[in-house]
Amino acid sequence: MRLTITLYFFLSCLNAVAAEALTSTVQPHIFVKAQSNKSHNSKAQPLLEAEEKVNRVLDSLHQFASDANFDDYFSLYSDNAVFIGTDANEIWTINAFKAYAQPHFSKGRGWTYTPHSRHIYFSNNRDVAWFDELLDNDSLGVTRGTGVLVLVNNEWKVSQYHLTIPIPNALADSVAEQIKSHRKKGQ
């Protein structure tokens, strides 16, 4: 009998083949797509400018995390941001995430995720951006970050970041069984 897989796990599995293909055959790339712009807001940032700013924020986010630079890292998040980690229990408000990160960063231990592909999309008036990116990590291998940025006082801020580990479809049943067994043990 097949297991019912949660939406989170299912979505991770769907993109695993693409993730493997990107890591083995395609050079690093960044894609940007604006939504339909029928009601263009004249105050909206031009697409290329918005693209550059969002890319800078995301690249800086990863660099500051790798450098364990607490203040600069968290300055890139909005006041009401949420960070969702790889464990089902890791859904942190920005203050809870700061409390988690502070002991690590204060000892100079950050985390290094190197982006090698990214897709960015914008709302019609370009005050909201959402993205997905594939990242390399020494211990986890290929991971995926997805999230939302909002324009706050003309600065892009990360409002949500979600880190996942893509599971190849061929391994999905086995991994799902391991997760189910792990949860039954109360771990």
TrEMBL record:
Q: Which Gene3D superfamilies match?
A: 3.10.450.50
- Record key words, sorted: Signal
Domain SnoaL-like positions:
54-168
Any Pfam family hit: SnoaL_3
| Leader peptide range in chain numbering | 1-18
Top-level taxon of origin:
Bacteria
**Record protein name field:** Nuclear transport factor 2 family protein
